[in-house]
Design brief:
Strand content of chain B: under 5%
Strand order of the largest sheet of chain A: 5-6-7-3-8-9
Low-confidence stretches of chain A: 49-60, 413-418
Mean pLDDT of chain A: 79
Order of helices and strands of chain B: EHHHHHHHHHHHH
Structural class of chain A: alpha+beta
Shape of chain B: globular
Radius of gyration of chain A: 28 Å
Shape of chain A: globular
Structural class of chain B: mainly alpha
Mean pLDDT of chain B: 85
Distance between the termini of chain B: 41 Å
Number of strands of chain A: 21
Distance between the termini of chain A: 66 Å
Oligomer: heterodimer
Radius of gyration of chain B: 21 Å
Helix content of chain B: 55-70%
Largest sheet of chain B: none
Strand content of chain A: 25-35%
Helix content of chain A: 25-40%
Chain lengths: 437, 282
């Protein structure tokens, strides 16, 4: 039997409620007004009209549970990966664990000192020298002056800034700045370390160093909670993951299964539209009695043919359209339109862009399959809707408006860029050149 | 499996009112020192004239007061040189009001750092109060120079044993400024409009403190009211120590100490309550 190490974090039924929109009324005057109205039994003059109509009580409005009844244990020396898409509750969980905010319900028991790296460089002041900032930052992260002194040389060496340690950090390059900040954090010696997306910092070489450092930390019997969108890093570091989805803990267990579930989460997404459904939703210029062309099936899948509607940004997406030609068809054009979640058309793709080529295309009656592949590294993290059109010139024009959607999860080493480009639609890898003038 | 008793920390959903952990604040004393240093460097490294900015306002205010309240309104100054009389009150008041203003936006001004990492939030206002001592000392130096000038030129001023109390007066002002400041900062996380009230409130409070007038000029039936203002005893004692004039009684000092302690306690109470959840509201 495997000997289990002791539990160092015990999370018991943690829930966190956030109020959206207006929090209280924000001015003392209005609060007093509301209270006075309640005392007299009159209607609260500050209640929103839609609240009155929907019959909600004042304090029941616009709340949402960022976390619902989360329980899990973390054992000593474990590196626990916390994964889930944006808004799943990962950051909220970390904030509660690092005591930045308090939970609404439940409790957490912790054995040992806990320190978080929610973001490196917290409290760095540009006017202070590297040395002063190391001490300040270390103290903010919970180290005593003595502990920092003991670790100082190691920190500076790790950050590779020996020469500039007595220079104000405002003169540092951003790389040096971030390296120094991470070095302080990496040399904290708490029993439990919370790491959120810090691997974003520095170049590939430095990132490798960081991953090594975290493995080392765990090797010393300390515990790491690691939140990342970088599945490679999670795979390399963690043997256990928890998967959060919309505030719920949906998976707890080994890393491979967890990541697979995260990427392939099969929810209520539709990956195949069948003939019956397509016929029921089609619009356009349609000949009811003598159809010329009809969609038979539209499928969205990855390149190996697994149907799904959630893709990483570095995967290709295959759209397969089967359709039947009832007569001889010339000039058949197929069009896929990609729309964003607000319904703006962001992209069109046609089977033939060149008009002169279209007329040469002649199809005999029968069933045909056309496949369109969206290249990888094209979309940003977002939800995209697909509309399909089939145009048999001058005869029929069939539209399937927003027939299906797919989600893109951004997949990168860099959470900095993820933060910058969150919710962008198009995020292609383009050629960049930089030169010194 | 180990027993529950070994847990070093528990994070609970609800906190009682008396959830104050001053021992923790003490554990973070290094951080307080470093924050003081950071504030100090940040203020001084960036200005050429640096300390001069701390000298001019009280000096000009004292001169303006001397003209308006001394020469025009002819409010007596207990027979003291007006500039000295006003300056003593002003520098004491300035320290207190700076502490209060600077700490009153603790939560909002530091929401960035508070949102990322936990440390006892009181570290910030405590370090602000300490760093303000530097500007007080600069102003105090100015006061001493003018004071010595008057002393040598034979003005009727008599420094006395109460001078020993000055450091304690400073501590009391720090405590009061801290208490008021964190009380306001706790309330402003919920009621933003209090920020506007603060500027006005401080102004009015100054006039409710014997700064432009001596306590001896306050009508007898109002003495109890003005004694409820904890700053009354502080300013009056401060002036008495250096100038040897004024009428401060021990019951007023005791009352002022009690009220100061109460405000500080109340401030810490509210502050600890708010610090647990304010990140959700800013």
């Amino acid at each position: 039997m495997k000997i289990m190490s002791e539990i160092v974090i015990k999370v018991e039924n943690i829930s966190k409620l956030y109020r959206l929109g207006i929090i209280s009324h924000n001015t003392l005057y209005q609060d007093i007004q509301s209270k006075w109205a309640r005392i007299r039994g009159a209607e609260d003059p500050n209640t929103q009209i839609d609240q009155l109509n929907s019959g909600l009580k004042n304090n029941e409005c616009e709340c949402f549970w960022a976390l619902k009844n989360i329980s899990f244990d973390v054992r000593k020396g474990e590196i626990l990966g916390i994964i889930g898409r944006n808004g799943a509750g990962k950051s909220t969980l970390l904030k509660i664990l690092s005591r930045v905010t308090a939970p609404t319900e439940g409790k957490i028991k912790i054995k040992g000192r806990i320190a978080s790296l929610l973001e490196v460089g917290t409290g760095f002041h540009p006017e202070l020298t590297g040395r002063e900032n190391v001490f300040l930052n270390g103290a903010i992260l919970g180290m005593t002056k003595q502990e920092i002194s003991e670790k100082f040389d190691e920190i500076v060496a790790f950050a590779e800034v020996e020469k500039f340690i007595d220079t104000p950090v405002k003169r540092y390059s951003s790389g040096m700045y971030v390296r120094l900040a991470f070095a302080v954090a990496a040399h904290l010696e708490p029993e439990i370390l919370i790491v959120d997306e810090v691997l974003a910092v520095g170049d590939a070489k430095f990132q490798k160093k960081c991953i090594g450092k975290m493995g080392e930390v765990a090797g010393e019997g300390r515990t790491v909670l690691f939140v990342s969108h970088n599945m490679n890093a999670v795979k390399n570091l963690c043997r256990k993951v928890i998967l959060l989805e919309a505030g719920n803990l949906v998976y707890e267990g080994d890393t491979h299964t967890g990541i697979a579930q995260y990427v392939n989460e099969d929810r209520i997404e539709t990956t195949t539209l069948d003939e019956e459904y397509l016929n029921s939703i089609m619009t356009g210029l349609i000949l009811e009695r003598n159809p010329t062309v009809r969609f038979q099936q539209i499928t969205i899948s990855d390149m190996s043919g697994n149907e799904r509607a959630t893709f990483r940004s570095d995967e290709e997406i295959k759209i397969t359209m089967r359709y039947r030609c009832y007569t001889k068809v010339t000039n058949l054009r197929l069009l896929i339109t990609v729309l964003d979640s607000e319904g703006n058309r962001i992209m069109n793709t046609l089977n033939y862009d060149d008009e002169s080529q279209v007329s040469k295309n002649e199809l005999n009656p029968g069933v045909f399959t056309s496949i369109c592949t969206f290249p990888k590294n094209l979309f940003g993290e977002n939800r995209f809707y697909l509309s399909f059109s089939m145009i048999n010139d001058y005869i029929e024009h069939i539209n399937i408006e927003k027939g299906m959607y797919f989600d893109i999860l951004f997949y990168s080493m860099s959470s900095y860029s993820e933060k910058l480009y969150e919710k962008t639609c198009i995020r292609p890898l383009l050629k960049w050149t930089t030169y010194v003038e | 499996m180990k027993e529950d008793t070994e847990w070093t920390m528990e994070i609970h959903s609800r906190s009682g009112w008396f959830n104050i952990d001053l021992a923790e604040l003490w554990r973070y004393r290094d951080l307080i020192v470093l924050f003081v240093r950071r504030e100090f460097v940040a203020v001084y490294k960036q200005t050429i004239l640096g300390p001069v900015w701390f000298l001019l306002p009280p000096l000009f205010t004292a001169i303006v007061f001397a003209i308006i309240f001394g020469s025009i309104a002819r409010i007596p100054t207990d027979g003291q040189p007006p500039v000295l009389f006003y300056l003593a009150g002003i520098i004491a008041w300035t320290y207190f009001s700076n502490c209060m203003t600077a700490t009153s936006n603790t939560f909002i001004a530091n929401s960035g750092i508070f949102g990322k990492v936990y440390f006892p939030r009181l570290v910030i206002p405590v370090s602000i109060v300490i760093v303000n001592i530097f500007s007080f000392l600069i102003q105090f130096g100015l006061f001493l120079i003018i004071y010595l000038y008057y002393l040598i030129s034979g003005a009727p001023i008599s420094p006395n044993i109460w001078l020993c109390l000055v450091p304690f007066l400073l501590i009391q002002m720090a405590a009061l400024g801290l208490g008021m400041g964190i009380l306001v900062s706790s309330l402003t996380t919920r009621y933003r409009d209090l920020t506007f009230a603060l500027g006005c409130g401080i102004q009015l409070w100054m006039y409710a403190t014997p700064i432009v007038y001596p306590l001896s000029q306050v009508p007898h039936q109002w003495i109890w009211l003005i004694s409820l203002n904890p700053m009354t005893a502080v300013v009056e004692s401060f002036r008495f120590a250096f100038l040897g004039s004024g009428m401060i009684q021990s019951w007023q000092i005791v009352l002022s100490l009690i009220i100061t302690a109460f405000i500080l306690f109340l401030g810490i109470l509210f502050f600890s309550k708010v610090e647990r959840s304010f990140m959700d509201t800013v």
